[in-house]
Design a protein that fits this description.
- The chain is mainly alpha-helical.
- It has two domains: 65 residues; 194 residues, f41 fragment of flagellin, N-terminal domain (Up-down Bundle), CATH 1.20.1330.10.
- The chain is 73% helix and 6% strand.
- Helix 2 packs antiparallel against helix 3.
- The two termini are 20 Å apart.
- GO terms for molecular function: structural molecule activity.
- Its main location: secreted.
Length: 278
Amino acid sequence: MPVITTNTSANSALRYLNINSDEQTNALNKVASGSRITRASDDAAGLAVATKLQSDVAVLGQASTNASHASSILETADGGLSSISDVLERMKVLCAESMSGAVSDTERTYINSEFSALMDEIDSIVSTTTFNGTALLSGTYSADFLVGTAAGDTITADLATNAAFGNIADLATAYADLATGVGSAANAATALTAVNSAIGDVAAARAEVGAQESRFDYHAAQINSSEENLDAAQSAIMDADVAEAQSEFSSAQVKTNAAIAALASANSMPQQLLSLLQ
C-alpha cells in the first residue's frame, strides 16, 4: 500500500545496505590483513587455539636456538679436549724417547723440559677453554637447556658427572706420577703409565661430549620439525584464503551497490506519491 508517512521500503533498503556494507568491510579486512580472523567474534574458538599455537611456535624458535647454543658449548669443549689429546700424544712420544738406550742423560734433560712445558700447556688449555666467560673443562660445568614448550622440557649439558672431566681439570693431582718427569728411563716408564691413563680419560670425556652433542643435534632437528608443523596448523586456522576473501568482497560490493540504488529509489517514492495530489 503506497503511503507517504512511513517509508518502509527505505527502511528495508537501509537495513540491507548496512548488512552488505559490513560484509564488504569484513571481506576487505581479510584481504588487506591476510588473516581469516580479524576480530574475536569471527571465530572465538579458532582464535584461542591459534593464539596458543602461535606462542608455542615462538617458544620452539627459542628452544631451537638453545639447542644450538648447547651444541656450540659441547663443540668448544671437544675442541679443548682434542688439543689436550694431541699434547698427551706428544708427551707419550717423549716418554718413549727418554726410555731409549741411545739417549744420554743430558738429552733426557732437554726432553724433560719439553715434557714439563707440555704439562703447563694442558693446564693452559683447561683454563682457556671457555664459552661466554664460563670455563668448560674445570670439571664443574653443568647447565640445563630448555628444548621444548614446557618448563620440564630440558636437556643437561653435563661436563662434571663423569670423573674423567675432574681428572683432566687437575691432571697433576689425578696423575701424580707425571710430576716425576722423564729425566731418567725409570721416571719415563712411570710417567708413561700415567700418560696412558690420562689419554684414556680424555677419550672417555670426548665420548661423553660426543654423546651429549649428538642428542642435542637430533633434538634440534625434532624441534624444527615440530615448529614447522605447528606453524602450518596455526596458518590453517588464521590465514585467509585470499581468492575466497576477494570473491566475498566482490559479492558484498555488488550487493552494497544494489542496496544503495534501492535506497535511493525508495527515498524518492514519497515524492513521487505527492505528485498524485497535484
